[in-house]
Each structure stands twice: as C-alpha cells, then as structure tokens.
C-alpha cells in the first residue's frame, strides 16, 4: 500500500432496480429515477444498472431500455451498465443499443461488460437458444465491440448504426482473477463485484494493477469497487435497515427468492447458522452504520485498497431511507476526500 498517494475517490451508484414487497416494477422504475436525480445533485459520478434475469426482486432485465429512461430523466450524471452480460448478446446488437444511447445522451453513457449469464442455467438457455452450447470468447467479443465503436471502422463491412465512431467507454466487470487479467491485458478500467463476491477482490485488483498494459483507452490502472452501503443517522437504525439486504442474500443462498422484504428486529428466526455464515461471507464488503462508523470503516477501506472509485448498492426497503443513505454516503466520502486533500 502506498500511503503517500492521496486521491479524490469518485463515488457512484449501482441499482438493481429492486422490487420491494407490496410494490411493482412500475413503482421501482419511478423510485430509480428519483434516486438518480438525487444522486446527480449529490455529485455521484455515475449511475449503473445491472442485467439480471428471472429474479422476482430484480427488474433491470432490459438494461439498455432502463438506462435510456434514467439518462432521459437526468442531465449530467453518467449512466451505464454494471453490466451487460456479454454471453447473452451479439456484440453488434450491444453496439447498436449503446450507440443509440450514446447518440441520445452524448458523453454520458458507460458500457460495463460481464462474462457471466446473470441468471440460472435454464434461463440462460432460454435467452441464448441454439447458441447456448457455443464457445464464448469474452476478449474477442470485447475487441469486436471496440472495433464497432471505433472511428476507424467507417469502411468496415459490418457497422453499428448508430454506434460507429462513438468510442463508447468500455469497462470490464468481474468477480475473479480471470476478469482482472482481461482488463489488464486490454488496458481497460476494472470494476469488481465485491458487494457479493469478496473472496478474490484484493488478489484480483493487485493482479490487474501489476499486469496493466496502457492502451489508447487508459494510460494507468483504474479500479472501481462495488460495495453494499446502508447508512442511517445511527448505527442501530442502519443495522435494522440492513436486515432487508440480509434477507435478500439469504434468498440467493437458499434459492428461495422473494420481493425485497421489510426490515425485522432480529434475523434469528429467519435463518440458520449455516445460512448466516454464508450470507455474511458474501457481504464481507458491506458498510452499515451511522456517519462516524462508516467514515472510519471507509477510510480504512480506501487506504487498504487504494481504489479510484467506490460504487454503492443499497437494498433498503423504504425509499426515503434509501435516498437518505445515499445522501449520507456522499457526505462521508466528500469528508474523507477533503481530509486526504
């Protein structure tokens, strides 16, 4: 760790368009736009949406459509995918979709790419059809996208219209060292899913930095960490709010999915010891508490990891409490940045 290096940590939002108990996707989309507008006012750098399928509590399956809705209702914040699951799509279709978005909202669209299906195998088969068993080459598909967005492709036999020449920024998303190697070799920014896959986080970002090759897109490594954030006025309030995300990940562990559940006073009657252990392992990089606790934990996290950007995802049942969490989080990161400066 280089403690002499000081930097302003950018802060951003990851939204899974979570559907809460008693609400519908329509309610979710309206809440997402309201949050995006507030994030823009608070100085958040970007607002990303994640592609998932066949999950009752996640309504961001048509990711590009939702990105357009959020970008159309805001004016300055960057909006993008965290990410588009590339095995599910032909690169040309992705280039056309994001070329359209970049044409409508110039200078504001990010394309984060993942190599997982974003769903279960049965649903992945339904998405891909006859292509399900085809070999998928993640780096080759990325290179195809780069070509389709390139200004040098104007005479190519296959062109993305729109998309051609727009140079839409591409990010590599990952939860393992494999993705780190791809991002490093291609000289692209790297976003790690430490909010649900913490095991390889430190190893992956170290590998990425050590093996990074400068490119026309990026001259030095750029690391973003996605983390869970539940901020409230007091530690006790935040802990109670966090029981919704605990129930959400319990559903992931147990395979019993539900809409996002309201907070409870105790999880003791909801999970067993093994489930509790599994959930807590997944949520290792979670920041839950009042301002003082979060400031201390985030400062230590930034010093240890030297990340360039932190992306917060917050599964909070009450919409106003969720907005308040993002307000507090922005204040805390700004305070940390002011001390570092």
From TrEMBL:
SUPFAM superfamilies for the chain: Bacterial luciferase-like
Give all residue intervals belonging to the Luciferase-like domain. Answer: 21-308
GO MF term set: oxidoreductase activity, acting on paired donors, with incorporation or reduction of molecular oxygen
One Gene Ontology term, aspect cellular component: cytosol
* InterPro entries, per the entry: Bact_Lucif_Oxidored (IPR050766), CmoO-like (IPR019949), Luciferase-like_dom (IPR011251), Luciferase-like_sf (IPR036661)
Q: Which domain of life is it from?
A: Bacteria
Give the family from UniProt: To bacterial alkanal monooxygenase alpha and beta chains.
Known PANTHER family for this protein?
LUCIFERASE-LIKE MONOOXYGENASE (PTHR30137)
The protein in question is named Luciferase-like monooxygenase
């Amino acid at each position: 760790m280089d403690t002499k290096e000081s930097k302003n940590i950018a802060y951003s939002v990851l939204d899974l368009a979570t559907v809460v108990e008693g609400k519908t996707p329509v309610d979710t989309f309206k809440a997402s736009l309201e949050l995006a507008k507030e994030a823009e006012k608070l100085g958040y750098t970007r607002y990303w949406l994640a592609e998932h399928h066949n999950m009752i509590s996640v309504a961001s399956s048509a990711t590009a459509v939702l990105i357009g809705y959020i970008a159309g209702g805001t004016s300055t914040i960057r909006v993008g995918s965290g990410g588009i699951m590339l095995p599910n799509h032909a690169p040309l279709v992705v280039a056309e979709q994001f070329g359209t978005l970049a044409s409508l909202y110039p200078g504001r669209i990010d394309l984060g790419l993942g190599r997982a299906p974003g769903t279960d195998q049965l649903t992945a088969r339904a998405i891909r059809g006859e292509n399900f068993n085809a070999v998928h080459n993640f780096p080759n598909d990325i290179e195809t996208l780069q070509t389709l967005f390139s200004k040098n492709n104007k005479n190519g036999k296959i062109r993305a219209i729109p998309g051609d020449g727009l140079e839409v920024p591409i990010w590599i998303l990952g939860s393992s060292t494999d993705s780190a190697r791809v991002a490093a070799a291609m000289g692209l920014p790297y976003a790690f899913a430490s909010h649900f896959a913490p095991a390889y986080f430190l190893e992956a970002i170290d590998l990425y930095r050590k093996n990074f090759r400068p490119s026309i897109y990026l001259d030095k490594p750029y690391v973003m960490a996605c983390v869970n954030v539940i901020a409230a006025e007091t530690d006790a309030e935040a802990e109670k709010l966090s029981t919704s995300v605990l129930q959400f990940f319990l559903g992931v562990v147990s395979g019993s999915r539900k809409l996002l559940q309201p907070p409870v006073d105790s999880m003791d009657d909801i999970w067993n010891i093994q489930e509790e252990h599994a959930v807590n392992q997944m949520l290792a990089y979670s920041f839950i508490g009042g301002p003082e606790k979060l400031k201390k934990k985030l400062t230590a996290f930034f010093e240890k990891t030297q990340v360039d950007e932190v992306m917060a995802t917050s599964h909070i049942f009450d919409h106003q409490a969720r907005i308040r969490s993002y307000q507090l989080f922005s204040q805390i990161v700004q305070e940390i940045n002011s001390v570092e400066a």
